[in-house]
Amino acid sequence: QVQLVESGGGLVQPGGSLRLSCEASAFTLNPYAVGWFRQAPGKEREGVLCIRPSDSVSYYIDSVRGRFTVSRDNTRGTVYLQMNSLKPEDTAVYYCAKRDNSYCSASGSVYNSWGQGTQVTVSS
Fold first, then answer.
1. Using CB atoms within 10 A of its CB, is residue 38 exposed (0-12), middle (13-18) or buried (19+)?
2. 3-state class of 64 per DSSP?
3. Which residues 6+ apart lie within 8 Å of 17 measured at CB?
4. Tens of pLDDT, residues 34-89
């Protein structure tokens, strides 16, 4: 099974920025839709956004529009989540996940490979 590895989480003050990375252990993510999800304490996991191989992006949380961007580095086979103007309500464990095709979905159940998650804490 393809293993995904996230990195880049940490503690940041409100208004700060973080960039999360997602890469696959066995092969490139280039041909697949990659979604970012998050789970805050005591809450259900929710889809944040997804990027297709065409670089088309679907946002699933309105409050991150204009603050979060997602991109691919096809030379590295890596997907990045750039998070700016972070707010305390963005605090969560963030996961990347891969589909077996190029189509995005907000439903985590259709993604077949997941990373272990990386903690993002926004606090002063």
1. buried
2. helix
3. 82, 83, 84, 85, 86
4. 999 999 999 999 999 999 999 999 999 999 999 999 999 988 889 999 999 999 99
- The predicted pLDDT at position 3 comes to 85
Query: Could you tell me if 20 and 93 are in contact, meaning their C-beta atoms sit under 8 angstroms apart?
Result: no
What whole-number distance in Å separates Cα of residue 124 and Cα of residue 115? 28
Picking from 12, 10, 2, the residue whose alpha carbon sits closest to that of residue 77 is 2
Q: Read off the tokens for 40.
A: 């805050």
Specify burial of residue 58 (Cβ count, 10 A radius: 0-12, 13-18, 19+).
middle
